[in-house]
Amino acid sequence: MTFCAVIVAAGSGTRAGPGSAKQWRAVAGKPVLRWSVETLLTAGAKALVVVISPGAEADLAAALAGLDGWSFVLGGATRAASVQAGLEALADRPGDEPVLVHDAARPFLGSATIAALLAALDAGADGALPALAVTDTLKRGVPGQGVTTTTRDGLWRAQTPQAFRRSTLVAAYAAWPAGDEPTDDAQLVERAGGEVVLVPGDPRLLKLTYPEDFAMAERLAGAPRPTRMGQGFDAHRWGPGQSVWLCGVEIVHDQTLIGHSDADAGLHALTDALLGAIGEGDIGDHFPPTDPQWKGASSDRFLIHAADLVRAKGGSIVNVDVTLICERPKIKPHRAAMRERLAQLLDLPLDRVSVKATTTEGMGFTGRGEGLAAQAIAVVEV
Ligand code: MG
After folding, report:
1. What is the pTM of this model?
2. CA distance 6 to 291
3. Which of 220, 251, 350, 372 stands the most exposed, by the fewest C-beta atoms within 10 Å?
């Protein structure tokens, strides 16, 4: 799905301390704005508009030197006016194209967040935003006076980017009452009656506001996100049949694999690898073979369930690699289709998905044609 982006960089950012506005300051040697511009361009933004204040042209050119694929417009007196200026600059893009509206002061945007936002729109939402659950106990009051405790149930910390079909957001701005300042873009679409959904937020996507935030950002920039790895193995026996499911693709063959579900050993190994990476047991724990509802089931759902568990933990899948082990059928003619299917099921770019095949040169149970085996590795950022 193509998308475009508006990055609001028009603030003066005076709370971040003296010196230049925060979006032009460097974190780990790179201007704050440049971090998210690079991520959005790498993720495939077809058009990217940066909204700046008058007089900031030289700062912008210096911050994004050497990058192509962006343009800029001058913002207005308020954030809402700036976003609208950015949307107007995208008026020649298709109206139903998603637009991601992002604040320049959140440098550590990850590709998983972008993918989750686009997937939410693709699933029919009118808007989507990343959000983190509130974990601190909340108090209402004034320092030095009595306080009361307020429930945090159902409360979320909204982040950016926030994603909408461009025409949806333009219409929501047009309907917004003059003189009232929205706190974010999602609020406009909510009030216009649209369904705005939450996708998993990212603790790294913090907003740089105060001087101490920059010290935290320097630490985050230098620290790679922790990664975890999981591996999976599966084997199924050959039996009479006309086709076989492997990595979510049906292949015409003179035998089939025998199993309780569709016996897709590639998907089973990969599901176990994902579950292993997050310490969530194995496929049998989640989909017991004794449960009749999984008889003949498509293994797609097992993999999607494991990927959902990764995301529910705030994680994202870095890459996966599957090896199929058999003498027959020949896997090579189907490898491209298998990669595409896995990339689709996992919502990953194609270059993060690998499918390989090997024989065992006639040795062992795969070599004798008794069965097919699969192994997989998954790397997850958490
Ligand atoms: Mg299996």
Report:
1. 0.62
2. 49
3. 350
